[in-house]
Every structure is written in structure tokens, then in C-alpha cells.
Amino acid sequence: MLLLGYVAQLLQSLKGVVRYEAPNLRNLADKVAAAGYYVVVPDFFHGDPYTPGEDVLVWLQSHGTDKGAADAKQVIKALKYKGISVVGAAGMCWGGKVVGELAKSDDLKAIVMMHPSRVTVEDIKEIKVPISILGAELDKQSPPALLKQFEKVLSTKPEVDSFVKIFEGVDHGWTLRYDIGNKEAVKQAEKAHHYMLKWLSKYVKC
Fold it and tell me: Domain named Dienelactone hydrolase: which ranges (predicted)?
């Protein structure tokens, strides 16, 4: 999870099921910080991230997104107490579901979901804040057909500004789980990062 903000504002970014100290996640945090935000990366997995080969359903029993949302609310509350009044969130994979839960209330000013996991049409119906959804053409967890359903639902909510984009030729996790030696993969990830920052700068600013 990344928390980003100015003195009077905060942007929160929740990671997917990867170690929070992962280099690409840290690099993304640095990139957002360079844009003028304060950035924090809490460990919502409490030192127990998902590892390849592990039964994801078993892992989720003790790492539910409901618990993640509850933890995030406590972090937001603490930061607001310290004077950081404007909060936004960006979530990848597991974090996409968490920021969606947070966006069902007025805790946030805007959210970005990147290759979200476990998000449903019913979740999208309850979104109350501006939302940008950046998806992957080859994503089996949130395939383009599902993202188009999200877009259709959002089109019926004129009070909620929204943006949905499907990136061609990329798979689930492309914004974080890329090989830094692969120029095309880096390019595609950076393109998504640009869209994320563009959306957040529109709503999470002084």
C-alpha cells in the first residue's frame, strides 16, 4: 500500500499480492513522491504476503480485503488527525478490491484501480467517488468483458466521474510485476503509471 499526499492531502495506494518491499513497488512510490506527494507503503499483509504455489483461497482466508479496508481506514484516520485532509487511493490486484470498498464512503476523494482482482459489478454500483480503472487485455481475473460491464454501470452514474482503459497486449499485474530488463514491459507499466498520476492529480491536490 502506498500513501501519497501534500501537507493538506493524501493519496493512498494499495498494492496487489506482492511483497510491499518489492523494488518495482518502491520505484512506483518514488515516482509518485517525485510528483509532489507524500508516500507511505504500509504492510497490510503483516509480513505474510502470498507466495507462488500457495493456495490463494486459503491465503485469502487470513488476508481478506475486508480486513485490508478496515486497516486502511485506521491509517487514513490517523493521517487526517495529523492534518492530511484530502485522501485518494490507488490499488493494484488485491488492493483494487480494497480501494473499491473505501470508495463506497466519503473517506476518499478519488481512486484508481489497476488490474483489480475480485471486484464485482455490485461493488462498482456502490462507488461514490471519481474512479479510474486501468485493465489488461489478457487479464483473466478482471477480463475486458468485465471491465466493460463496469464502464456501463459507471455510465449510469453521472455524479461519479469515471475513466476505464484496457491496455493491449498486457496481463494481470503488468504495472508492478514487470522485468526491468524488458523495455516494452517497462514502457507499458510506465504508461499506466502516467494515467494513474493524471487521474489523481485531477482530484487529489491542494
Answer: 22-203
Task: Please say whether the beta carbons of 145 and 124 come within 8 A.
Answer: no
Side-chain-facing half-sphere of 97: CA atoms under 13 Å: 18
pTM: 0.87
For the chain, the domains span 2-203
| Residue appearing with cell numbers 473517506 | 107
The bridge status of strand 2-4 relative to strand 9-14 is antiparallel
Length of the chain: 206
Q: What distance, in Å, lies between the first and last C-alpha atoms of the chain?
A: 22
Q: What is the pLDDT along the chain (206 residues), one digit of tens a residue?
A: 454 443 334 555 554 444 455 788 888 888 887 888 777 777 777 777 777 787 777 877 777 788 888 988 988 888 788 787 788 888 999 999 999 999 999 888 999 999 999 999 999 999 999 999 999 999 999 999 999 999 999 999 999 999 999 999 999 999 998 999 999 999 999 999 999 999 989 998 75
Angle between helices 94-102 and 65-81 (to 10 degrees): 60
Q: What is the assigned CATH class of domain 2-203?
A: alpha beta
